[in-house]
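Thread: quick sanity check before group meeting

JM: Hey all, I'm pulling together slides for Thursday and realized we never actually wrote out the predicted structure for the chain we discussed last week. Dropping the sequence here so it's in one place. If anyone has concerns about the input, flag it before I start.
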Amino acid sequence: MRRDAIFYKLFQQAPSLIFELLEATPANTDGLRPTMGDRYRFESVAVKETTFTIDGVFLPPEDETAGVIYFAEVQMQKDERLYERMFTESLAYFYRNRDHFSDWQAVAIYPSRSMEQSESYPYRALLKSDQVHRIYLNELGAIEELPLGVAAMVLTIEDKATAPDKARLLLQRVDQELTNLPVKQGIMEMVSTIIAYMFTTLSRQEIDEMLGIKMEDIRVFREAKEEKAQEIALNMLKDNFPLEQVARLTGLTIEQVQSLQSQIKQN
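JM (edit): ok, ran it. Output follows.
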């Protein structure tokens, strides 16, 4: 199941989700005036001096002077060198862009504590500080009680036997609790995508029947989403991201990404 792509889309659609996970409100450079989380933008960035690629970066609003930048790593499998990589690439990026930010925060998202790096002693000071946050999805609570965006994240680690029931419940909550149509459609499609990744042998029609929805009815904003995906892809290509990674993270086909790359070269 390609959870990295799911989380990329979730964070791209709603950057404020990272602050829901942290149960915090970002502050500007003086630490006094709060910044609305939905004013942040989410990007995947490359640290050009190395081969590192940061999973996700939450950038403060451009009209803020030296805001706080948030680095995020979604780690669904054991990686015994995660912290080495995460701190190296995050601090390298912060160093290269030091004039733009007043502070940094790092967030590591795990399905459970068992997936965390075993040997973390060399990083004890950072891990115990208020700059580094470790989120364990299986400890956040019940899908029925969590905020909708966070509940969708937790759905990614639900057992296949119970996932369809949890997904239907989540879709009912979306229908009952949300009035903003684009946001409602976005979360509904994300829930459907998560289930499709879990049950790869099922057809789209079978997924729709399992969830009791018609995907064609909730793709009203497909063109607008594809336009946004192309905008993200263009930015990634300009930063020299590999074509396969751009396609994977934006949901575009290789052919679409190659076409965008050709546009860049022509310009």
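AS: nice. Residues 181-198 form the longest helix (18 residues). The chain has a mean pLDDT of 83.
JM: adding both to the slides.
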